[in-house]
Specification:
Blueprint (H helix, E strand, L loop, with lengths): L1 H23 L3 E10 L3 H12 L4 E7 L3 E6 L6 E12 L2 E12 L2 H11 L3 H12 L1
Antiparallel strand pairs: 1-5, 2-3, 3-4, 4-5
Helix pairs in contact: 1-3
Length: about 130
């Protein structure tokens, strides 16, 4: 019984420390990633425009084959923000730069986003997937 209480107390203390550190972190963050996609800007634009138009997102700005800004439409999520896609023609195809202006509202998620997952993980995965496509 004593060991169970020690384990439970340690777990509660750990969650409390994570919540306190998360509460001290800024709610908003900005992160940028870019990659070269071996397709023409119009083709890359068509792909990102299709993915950015899903119901979870709303298009804020749209300049075909040059710039697209999408924002999370669901306000009930523990996070929010926008992605700005900038497409630039380069000899190898298209340099796609994504800038995330994000907010993480929950302090525990904020801690995890900063120290466990990283603010750039989703962008890195997205760009890698585009490069394979």
């Amino acid at each position: 019984m004593k060991i169970a209480l020690i384990i439970l107390g340690t777990l509660v203390a750990l969650i409390l420390v994570v919540a306190i550190i998360g509460a001290m972190l800024p709610r908003a963050h900005t992160a940028t990633r870019s990659a070269v996609i071996r397709k023409q800007p119009r083709d890359v634009y068509a792909i990102i425009r299709d993915l950015a138009s899903t119901p979870e997102y709303e298009i804020v700005e749209d300049v075909p084959a040059q710039r697209l800004v999408s924002r999370i439409a669901d306000k009930s999520l523990p996070y929010g923000g926008s992605w700005t896609y900038v497409l630039e023609a380069v000899p190898e195809g298209t340099r796609l730069t994504i800038t995330e202006n994000g907010e993480v509202y929950n302090p525990i998620f904020r801690f995890l986003s900063k120290f466990v997952f990283g603010h750039t993980k989703t962008m890195d995965d997205y760009l890698a997937s585009l490069q394979k496509r």
